[in-house]
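User: New here, please read:
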Amino acid sequence: MKTLNSQAVARLTATGLLLLAGSAQAHTGHDTSSLMSGLFHPLGLDHMLAMLAVGLWSVRVLPAQRAWQGPALFMLALIAGAAMGMLGFQFAMLEQLIALSVVLFGVMLMMSFHHVPVTLGLGVVAVAALAHGMAHGAEAPASGFLGYALGFLVTTAALHCSGVAAGLGLRKFLAQRAGAVVITLGSVLGLTGLYLFCNA
């Protein structure tokens, strides 16, 4: 039964991500003038996958008492990136970099069973969060930024918590097959990121 459940979880998730990727655009035109628009902005496929992956990776790699560090680092770097974006600072090829971060998070999940330095993973988290934050900041409204920022931070935190919950659920209910599920999810995440990269 456990084998069937783990395979079902992996297949359903992979199918869902691939279907979403079929119509995904990294950043389409949208309103950025309110709390509500901030709440919905991180639900774009690239942002959503990155934030879920950070939560899941943190549970897989970091000690239990430090699992919060990955999401917390992402949130802090996201705020810093948003401020930079508002001031007009951006990484070159920002859209491609955001898509590439999804690929890297997929690789990190697949490598989460090997002894890869945690500091390297946290470095990727920080740089990715800066890029995602710059995208938020660059699209910020001329007025009312506080509400917009609060919205995307709340949704970001919720997505991180969902990733953490997924990691804890795998550990508890699919312990023997968690590795196969995480590797499958990492593979699909990487492929989805490549699709987004090619279409950025």
In short: The CA atoms of residues 103 and 190 lie 4 Å apart.
